[in-house]
Amino acid sequence: MNILHSVTSVLFVHAHPDDETISTGGLIAYLTSRNIRVSLVTATRGERGEVVAGPLSPLAGTIALAQERERELARAAVTLGVDQSFWLGEAPARAPGLPPRRYRDSGMQWIRPGLAGPAPDSETDALARAPLAEVTEDLVAVLQHLRPDLVISYDATGGYGHPDHVRVHDATLAASHRLAVPYAEILDIPAADAEWLDLDASRDTVVAALRCHASQLTVHGDDIVHSGGQRDAIRTAIGLRLR
Predict the structure, then answer these.
(1) Which residue from 209, 194, 203 is spatially nearest to 233, judged by alpha carbons?
(2) HEC profile for the chain?
(3) What's the first-to-final CA gap in the chain, in angstroms?
(4) Exposure string (b/e) for 167-179, b if CB count within 10 Å is 16 or more?
(5) Which of 72, 151, 180, 223 is the most exposed place for a label (fewest CB within 10 A)?
(6) Rounded CA gap, 193 and 239, in Å?
């Protein structure tokens, strides 16, 4: 199995700024270092995310937070070598004939350690409350615009249950299948039916991109420390499974 064989262009679809680096930064850096064209669609600005304690703390809950996370994502994308970045709901990631739409971070709550669920107070313009058909049509539009060889996004759980991740998975998979574009889901652990890639050579690039997301996380040694204090190891290895 070699999912990346003969691939010359890849589209990554993620839910929030920093997801692209935390879950797929090593893979993006690996692909771009081999002159494979990488495009990125991000669905929301992560407006409801917590903010790392420090000089950026006053941004929490303000319009300025979304603006800062736009800038952070732009810097991280450049660091990883992303060729083109788009926001879901804005051309070319918007269905023809529809006005631009800004999908809002839906928020989440922890059900148990490692598993998230919907927030009880998501707003009407939240991504998870948007019609699945509308989100799918937006992704069809950007796929038709870019015509990638491969689309990469989450598995059916969204990795850990965040409703925005799940909505991105459902819509991206549907759009990919409609246009017969191969879809590979991200796995955090090896599986018999998946390809496992150890990309530790990309670690320095991933660390540099992670540092671009200063409102959301800090890098401490080999770990990511999230705004809420949770720690995760910096990941460069990744599994890909075709769906």
Answers:
(1) 203
(2) CCCCCCCCEEEEEECCCCHHHHHHHHHHHHHHHCCCEEEEEECCCCCCCCCCCCCCHHHCCCHHHHHHHHHHHHHHHHHHCCCEEEECCCCCCCCCCCCCCCCECCCEEEEECCEEEECCCCCCCEHHHCCHHHHHHHHHHHHHHHCCCEEEECCCCCCCCCHHHHHHHHHHHHHHHHCCCCEEEEECCCCCCCEEECCHHHHHHHHHHHHCCCCCEEEECCEEEECCCCEEECCCCEEEEEC
(3) 14
(4) bbbbbbbbbbeee
(5) 180
(6) 10
Closest CA to 37 of 82, 3, 75: 82
**Whole-angstrom distance, CA of residue 4 vs CA of residue 45:** 29
pLDDT averaged over the chain? 95
What pLDDT is attached to residue 1? 65
Is 34 within 8 Å of 203 (Cβ atoms)? Answer: no
Q: Report helix, strand or coil for 101.
A: coil
- The list of the chain residues with pLDDT below 70 reads 1
Rg of the chain taking only CA atoms, in angstroms: 17
> Which two structure tokens, joined as six digits, stand for 180?
């017969």
Q: For residues 108 and 94, give the distance between their C-alpha atoms in angstroms, rounded to a whole number.
A: 25
Q: Which ranges in 81-121 belong to alpha helices (H)?
A: none
Please state the φ and ψ torsions of residue 125, each to the nearest 5 degrees.
Answer: -95, 15
pTM: 0.96
Is residue 91 within 8 Å of 97, Cβ to Cβ? no
Question: Residue 88, CB half-sphere, CA atoms under 13 Å: how many?
Answer: 31
The residue with tokens 């990346």 is 4
% the chain with pLDDT above 70: 100
